[in-house]
User: Fold this.
Amino acid sequence: MSTAAARFLDAAGSITRNLRHRGLIQTALRKYESARDRRKAAFHDWESARQAAAETKWEAINHLDEHLVSFADKLESRGTKVHWCGNGIEARDLIRTIIRDAGAKCVVKSKAMTAEEIHLNEALEKDGFEVVESDLGEFIVQLRKEPPYHIVFPAMHLTRDEISDLFEKELGSAPTREPEELTMIARRALRRKYVTADVGITGANFAIAETGMVSITENEGNARLTAALPRTMITLLGIEKVLPRMEDLALFLPMLATAGAGQAITGYNTLYSGPRQPGESDGPTEWHVVLLDNRRTELLADPEQRDALHCIRCGACLNVCPIFKNVGGHTYGTTYSGPVGSVITPHLRGLQDWKHLSGSSSLCGACTEACPVRIDLHHHLLQNRRNAASEKPSTLERLTWRLHAFLMNSPSLYHLAKECGRVFEPLRKATEGTVLDPVRSWTTTRTLPPVAPVSFKEWWRERR
Amino acid sequence: MNGRERILARIREALRVPAPRPGSHGHGHHDVPAPSPQAGRIPLRPVQQARAWLPPGGDTPEEQLGRFAAASADLKTDFHLLADEAAARAKLSGIASAEGWKQIATHRAALTDAVVPSLGIPSRNTDGGYDPEDLERCDAGITTCDVLVAQTGTLVVNSRTTGGRALSVLPPHHVVLARRDQLVGDLTDAFQRIRELHGEGWPSMISLVTGPSRTGDIERILVLGAHGPKKLTVLMW
Assistant:
């Protein structure tokens, strides 16, 4: 068993028994569900909107080269520096160099899952830069030295009391039970940073090919400030973020907000098309847009699962997933958790090391149903299982199935096996769940059905 | 080969095998028509078609005003529909004295020029540059906007003609002065208006602002004023 799989099983085993954790997640998600359903009901036709969104992303992803060229050329024509990075190391080195050349000490950052993906903060902090996460949830988990729990709700697993204790310890604030007061503590702590930071780093939600714009979605205004005050701005985004036209946002912004947070539209949706332009009063003088591949092209090369690149990172599939609801976000040990994380992580980080995530699914299809861009998530989990097994077959599994087939094809052997089962049933019952039980990993949490005292065949013969 | 060419080459190589069309994996809803078969491409649907699926924005100006007012109430945007410029001046000066504004920031535009000086409060213009420390100390930022959207209660500001990137987000209270004819039905209309206004040369930032700054990061409980303005007021006449 690989270590990632062992860690997953271990963490899942303990957290599923944690009723406090379950209560927190259920409360948060219940609030999300009722808001989302209300917003979905306001749509004239949610299903057609999903289909249209899926088609739009299909066009964007299946002609990614054309769209990216247009995106980059338009941006460059207005003074933006566009960089293309093949992997996390390249992106980290590049961003480090930009920050160093800017002579910066303090970097203020708004939420970016791609930055989590390439472990940007650790790398910058190692170099002695101060990196401040400005999104409230990210700020909280950064203080806890934890990765975000959820791609949209980073601090979903914490209570106000835990956050109050954390702020008291790290920021020296007075304890409080009011979320409003806690938010104001963070606001005060971060205000100075916006005004004094030399570099601002953001993520992106959409890259508009036709006009050469980056669209950033947020509720707090922290990304707006990050992109307004520091003199150098860096935007890191995956190459799959492309949308063909600016007008496509009329569809995607409400869908992202509805599916992601149960809002009609998110508080701030901001389009950036360049650094400060002549005649403008503020904004960075330098803007670097960093396009990140980091094995997305490998996923692109798999036509069966290419639609996983349609993902707009709304988190809807996490919120409806029975596995996510029980094991929580940190158990996955991945940047992207939940169903979409289980689908793409094996592509981004290696199939054999992450194939266990394909099994962490009940295949109920709730994720596929929830996805606003109709990614075929639960079938992709099955395909990953198939691919992992055909790439590296398990000898034990193959032998087991061969033995099973052999037994099933021979009436006399089948009869013998049945008789043995009946004879050994008391022994099996007595050892169930103990170290002597060969299928212990199954029986510690489940009960095997007992072998019937009379087989159907015998029962039928008696009645005939 | 540089980074750009390397990644583009990988993309082109990956795309040599076509992917199945969306909705072709069999769990779809059958009332949704399948895209028309065309070699290698799905033609993008006309943008106006989005109207058939999205939440409505209202057909008449009255309906749109009603929707904008309802969305504003929902978002905790303080929306006032006023009779004329004089009423706007009176309203704004009422807000200024109620909140005890001592210094404010704005930008040059017909609407701000008509309303802001009458307040008699020290005011700085962000046009042509400003000191962020000063702007941070202002009690309110007063701006115009490009367009307002009935469907979502959104208003659109930009970095060139509505005071820059920070004016609408750094001070604790953002006041927007708007004309009735700036209100449109839905986001599709809004993007059309944005294109008409700026399509010849984009401002470096265009922001769709919907309600005051908000967060639900602590136990999913709504708190206003996370980093941006705690209050958003729209005065329309």
User: Anything to note?
Assistant: The radius of gyration of chain A is 26 Å. Chain A touches chain B through 119 residues (CB under 8 Å).
